[in-house]
Specification:
199 residues; alpha/beta; four-stranded parallel sheet; globular
């Protein structure tokens, strides 16, 4: 498994599932064209890009390029790496028919093709070519969320919503989705300070 410094943004959950079998990093989705209507998601992408860099990995069809171009317009270019998959014609296993252009998306690519695309775009693979093995500092865990009253207890959903508002994060982040986002945006100490401010 490749441990990356940068986070990756893909179009949908099937792309995310495929990629998560290859890389260890935060993977965010645009939910297709929903990104055009989700200002909170755009804000999150900007913050992640500023903190650790962002790799844009969309499908190679027309829709993928519309989403990619939108992201290019809202994100600082110096914080973004463009990752392209090749045009491969076919149909993903879960679909009854190929897409409109007949091309495989990210979810249909083999791990070898995805790894090559990531290396070609200049993804920072931790532990290779002088990159550190892992980021410094203690990681925030699901247990930390539980102990802070943000998951698994009475009132935890409301408390988690308060934290999401305080950190200007999308309201629909679940406790499981919140952990990698927090590890991207905050140190453990900053997390503790944010929780303390909740009271």
């Amino acid at each position: 498994m490749l441990k990356l410094k940068e986070a990756i943004v893909v179009e949908g959950r099937y792309d995310k599932n495929t990629l998560s079998q290859l890389v260890d990093t935060l993977i965010l989705t645009t939910d297709g064209f929903q990104i055009f209507h989700q200002k909170e998601r755009e804000t999150l992408l900007r913050r992640v890009a500023a903190r650790r860099g962002l790799i844009i990995l969309t499908d190679s069809d027309g829709a993928g390029f519309v989403i990619r171009n939108h992201l290019k317009g809202i994100l600082p270019p110096e914080q973004v790496k463009q990752c392209y998959i090749p045009d491969v014609y076919g149909k993903e296993k879960r679909k009854k028919a190929p897409g409109r252009e007949g091309k495989l998306g990210v979810e249909g690519m083999s791990p070898a093709v995805l790894e090559e695309a990531l290396r070609r775009c200049g993804a920072t693979i931790l532990g290779e070519n002088g990159a550190p093995d892992c980021p410094a500092g203690r990681e925030i865990t699901k247990l930390d969320l539980y102990q802070a009253g943000l998951s698994g207890g009475a009132g935890s959903a409301g408390r988690r919503q308060a934290l999401l508002r305080a950190l200007d994060l999308p309201e629909h982040l679940t406790a499981n989705a919140l952990v990698p986002v927090l590890n991207t945006l905050l140190t453990y100490e900053e997390f503790l300070a944010a929780v303390e401010q909740l009271g």
